[in-house]
Each structure stands twice: as C-alpha cells, then as structure tokens.
Sequence to fold (587 residues):
Amino acid sequence: METIFDLQDVSYTYLEKFEALNSVNLTMTAGEQISIMGANGSGKSTLLSILNALVYPTSGEFYAFGKPVTEEAFNSLEDNEFGRYFRKKVGIVFQNPDIQLFSSTVFDEIAFGPLQLGLPKDEVKKRTEEVISMMEISNLRDRAPHTLSGGEKKKVCIASILSINPDVLLLDEPTGGLDPRSQLWLIELLQDLAKAGKTIITATHDLDIVEQISTRAIVFGEDHTIKADSTCDMVMNNLELLTSTNLIHKHMHRHGKLMHEHLHSHDAENHHEH
Amino acid sequence: MLPEWMKEVEIGPCQCCAVNVGKKKSFVEKSISGVLNFFQESLISEDFAKRDGLLQSLDPRVKLISAIVLVVAVSLTRDIRVLFVSYLLILLFAYLSKIEILFFIKRVWVFVPIFAGIIVLPILFNVFMAGDSLITVATLGSGAHLGPILLPSTIYITRQGTMFAITFILRVATCVSIAVLLFLTTQRDVLFKSLRSLHVPKVYVLTLDMCYRYIFLLMDTVRDFFTAKKSRTISSLSVRDEQRWVAGRVGYMLVKSLDMSNKVHDAMISRGFNGDVKLLHDYAVRKRDYAAIATMLMFSSVLALISQNIIRI
Fold:
C-alpha cells in the first residue's frame, strides 16, 4: 500500500516551552483506519494539526504523499501545486464545530471548500446539494450556524469536509458531545467511507468507538511519546497499557466488550483479579 | 478525602424573612436580558426576511442600490411635505413587505430622537438661530450672559428653529427607515454578498459576513459569563469589584477572540483558502427588478430636482 504520511522523529513544542509531541515515528498508508488514542493533553490534536499541515514539527521531518511538508512550502498557497494537491487530499474535522463553521449559512459552509479549490460554480452547487442530501440535512440548508444544535453542527462540519471529497479524513474527537443516536450515525458514516477506500484517522479517547471505526490503534502516553502502535484488538485488550496511559482507570474499565465500573473505594472487598 | 467543613449538610426550610426585595434588575440581569434580546431581535429579523412580501421578492442588488440612491435623494430634500410623503411611502413598502407597521415605526423611532434629537435640540432656541417667537422659555433681562457669551434678554423657541428641527428629524427618520427596511427584508448573507455589486472588495464582504456570524458566538460566551456569575453570586459585590470583574471578562474575551481567529484561519486554510476569496452567489434579475430600480431611480431624481428647485411644487 502507498505510504501517505511519514513522520520521522517528529517533536513539537508550544511557545518553546510546552511539549506536545516527543520523537514520534509513524507511517500511515492509504486506506487505513487509524485511531489515535491518549489522555487529555497527550498530543493527539497536535498530531492531527501536523498531519493537516497547520503546524509544523519543531524538530524531525514530516513527509506527505512522498514530499516534505515544511512551513516554507505552505506559507503561500498561491500558485503552490503541492499545497493545492494536499488540501484537496486531506480534510480535517475540528473538535470545536464553531471554529469550522465560519460562513453565514449551512449551504455556504459546505460550498466553501470546493469553491476555494477552484471548481466551476455549477459543479460546486451540484456537489453541495448532493452532500446536503447525502447527509440528510436539507432542513438546515439556509440556517445560520448559531441556530444549530451540537449534533447538527457536527453534521455540517463533516459535510463541509466531505464536499471537498478528500481521500484522507482527519477527525478530532468526533463523538464529543454527541448523543447516542448521532454517535451511531457517525460510526456508520465512517464505516461507509472506509469501505469506499478513504483513509480515516481519528483522535479520540472514547474507547467505545475505537474498534468500530478503526483497525489500527496508536496510543500516546502522557509523556507525549507513542506507547503502542498495533491492531485495535491488541491495544484494547492490553489493560495494563490502557491503564498506564490513563485511558481507563482501575475502577472504571472494560472486561472484553463490557464496561465495568465500581465505586472508587480502596476497601479490600472491592478488589478483584482481572 | 473531603475536608471537614464540606461534610456539613444543612437541610430544612429556609429561615429567610423576606423573599422579594424589589423589582430593580441587577446589572448581571440586565446584561443577560440584553444578550437574549439581541438573539430574539436577530431571529425576528430573519423571520421578516423570509416572508413572502414585495421587497423580499426583489433582487438584493436592486434593493441595495435603490436604498442608497433614495437615501441620497432624501438627504437633499428640504421640503417637509415631500419628506412626509417619502416617509409614508417607506411605510407603505414596509406594509407591502408584510412587516408589522407598529414594530417598524418603533424600531426606527427608538433611535432617531436619541441621535437626531440631541443634535438638533439647540437649534430650537433663539440663542443659536434667530426667528419668530413660538414659546417663551425664560426672560433674563438685558445684559444676561453665560460666561463670555452674551444671551438675548428673552430666550424662546423659534418657529423657524422648530420647522428646521422637524424637517431634520423627519429626514433622518426617513433615511433610517430606508436602511432598516433594507435590513429587515434581506437575508444578512445575501445582503453582504450584494455589496459586491458596488465593487466592494471580496475580502471585506467575507470579513463582514464572518464578523456577523461570530458576533453570535461571542454573545453566547458573554451570556454564559453572566449566567455563571448569577449562579454563584450570593451577595452583591461593590461597584469597584463589579467593574474589576467586567474588566477581567473584557480582557478574557479579547484573548479568546484572538485565539479563535487563529483557529478559524487554520480551518479556512485546511479547506483550501489561499487569500484569494471566492464567493458563491447566484442572482437572477427579473422584469420586476428592472421595474423596481427604474421606479426608484425616477422617484429619487424627482426628489433631487425638487430639492434644487428645478421642479416647483
């Protein structure tokens, strides 16, 4: 399979002080479904920002589609063939929908990406209408973002990326704040996109969706390094790893597919062997 | 684990002797209701813009250009009768656009007295504009002065000053009514995009559009601030502490807006934005639009000719 992303010893530090990623080595191939797991602040979102060429490694090298991704290459997207190719190929769904929904109507929001990528206006309109219909959000077509519910905003965010038709989809905590029905809808959509051959990379600490939307799991520790990079089954059954990376707690964890939870108490009667 | 004081629980009926302490709203309450009013008003405006009325059916560019031309023509008009007819015409357009007339009049006249009224107030008196006496306000006698300014022996409201003030206020009210009518009958995003027809640069149109969108988000944050404060306010703070709190929140909003602007920019970049703004707008000018702009240009020209005494009435 073709390698799409290659990170070689990548580190990232905010304000030259706060470490977000530490010596990350990773390759990702086309068509993979990957979950990036880790506790709050472990560096998942920063990794997605690097993968989307929004921030650049403080040290190390990042290659996308065989070409180096550097600040210089992306500083001016005008007349930059690689930049245009990259933006067409890779789309990101941000954790906070309000960042992503900057247009005044849902229709304009979904049309924004294809317009910027220079598609003819008729094609933009046709594509936007088709995505609206596919996502079943025709009722939201002319609504302003501030009048949408959390679930509706998330749907519009995803629609605004799908209208670009990227081959690689990056999602940052996609199920955050969604009710169970919306979560199920999202999982089914991601599964359909995976079947269509899209590469789906999801940053999450929601263990319930990991096995449903991905086959590979990368776990980040609280020291911002990769602690595991394996199949989902292997990672999800490694309780020691999940506990040490703060993805489960010994009083709130899973037994196979079952979520197990008991009161946080240190009495001997609550102790049990796994 | 819990500190001792946290383990104390007091359950029982409240021993308070007074529940109501007055109807005066605190500044927190006023701020919350102000934000809620803002949201409510915007929803009402959106509702008007979607109605099936006369102006809603016209092309936004036609409305925008007509409104600008009409405002210029009204600004030139000096004749009170012509101004009155123009104002009635705007009211008729509002009625035909299915806007409640009382709501429309209230919306305009809330602001007009505040701004135009204050500006024009001094002109009523003979101190600033000589004229025939209408109402005597004060008799000061000869030699009265205010500092270095010599005052007339009798201060009165003049007939000419009053006519001037009424004409001025009516002119302002008509111009404001035209602008309000344009805003009420046109969806905001469409209105902003129609600015392109006046060759306003695309980047300004996009910025205006985004500003309008993010005002709601920031207002939402402001409402959350005040609601959180209300929920944790046990006794009222001193004015100085309240001011300090507000100043802190203003600072926080600035930081938050800057942070958000960076993130929004990232979101735009990630979807292919490269500084060259591309907007999607689809307008179709129909016969009624041509008729509307021709009528409005003709009417505005007549107003201008009357104002220059080329047409006498």
Chain A touches chain B through 43 residues (CB under 8 Å). Chain A has one domain: 3-270.
